[in-house]
Amino acid sequence: MGLKTGIEWTEATWNPVTGCTKVTTGCDHCYAALLAERRLRGLYLAKAPTRNTPESRADPFAVRLWPERLRAPLAWNEPRMVFVNSMSDLFHHDVPDDFVRRVFEVMLAAGRHVFQVLTKRPSRAARFWAKHAHVLGHEAVPPHIWIGTSVENQEVTYRVRHLADVPAQVRFLSCEPLLGPLDLNLDSIHWVIAGGESGAGFRAMHPDWARLVRDQCVAARVPFFFKQWGGLTPKAGGNRLDRRVWRQYPFLPGMPLDTRRPRPASRNRRAESASFSVAG
Ligand code: SF4
Fold first, then answer.
1. Structural domain tally of the chain?
2. Residue 107, domain member (yes or no)
3. How far apart are CA 214 and CA 229, in angstroms?
4. pLDDT tens digits for range 78-117
5. Global pTM value
6. H helices of the chain, where?
7. In testing the pocket of ligand 1, which one of 21, 22, 90, 118 has its CB within 8 Å of the most ligand atoms?
8. Which residue of 15, 24, 27, 63 sits with most ligand 1 atoms within 8 Å of its CB, as the best mutation to test the pocket?
9. Is there an atom of ligand 1 within 6 Å of 23 CB?
10. Is residue 120 part of a domain?
């Protein structure tokens, strides 16, 4: 099993890449950057970054590759949901295509798990897949590899369009930290996570912003996961939205293959919903 995690919507983390660069306001309080600066500084600085400059070598949050971690999921026998690169962004421009391909080769070989790849750079994800799909031997990203993007406010909803260009069978959105009201096009989306920010200096989430995302998911029959209200600590505000816990998934690892059919991403609202609710 990989590193245990307190992230509610997954079961394990796998970090064959670490380090990143902040891109939009959702990154302002990035916990990966914080951990790299504090707890993991010594470990990270002992490894050469992909960009071999004095600035990068002195930066614990510069992008670093960890090939020795690549095979870890192949050794985990029990099916798991695995958050890929919780300490980085797989599609950061400093991660070479060859290494992204090796990460995909492992995910493809470990089909018993569900891999959750979350990026703020979905346009590179689309370019990567268009270029490498033939080498990887799959026209579309198979259903056990979920590709998602972060949408913290309306300004970055262009990422939803870029994500739609990735021929994945499960595409998801992480609206966390949710920093404003969102008007979402969910036609190509199979799962949505929402949550408020936590930690010192957290930016409070208005309850109506969370309701708005939930209501759009319900209307579009897209599984919805409400992670937390946020506050000084992740659990400070709890995880009930209008007295209900929302923990829905497209499907879970270990489910028989013929039940792993997420709702078709289409405009056909009568399409059978395969959302799977584990609580509430
Ligand atoms: S993209 Fe993700 S990992 Fe990278 S800085 Fe932003 S929040 Fe952190």
1. 1
2. no
3. 13
4. 999 999 999 999 999 999 999 999 999 999 999 999 999 9
5. 0.91
6. 31-37, 41-45, 54-57, 97-109, 122-136, 158-164, 207-220
7. 22
8. 27
9. yes
10. no
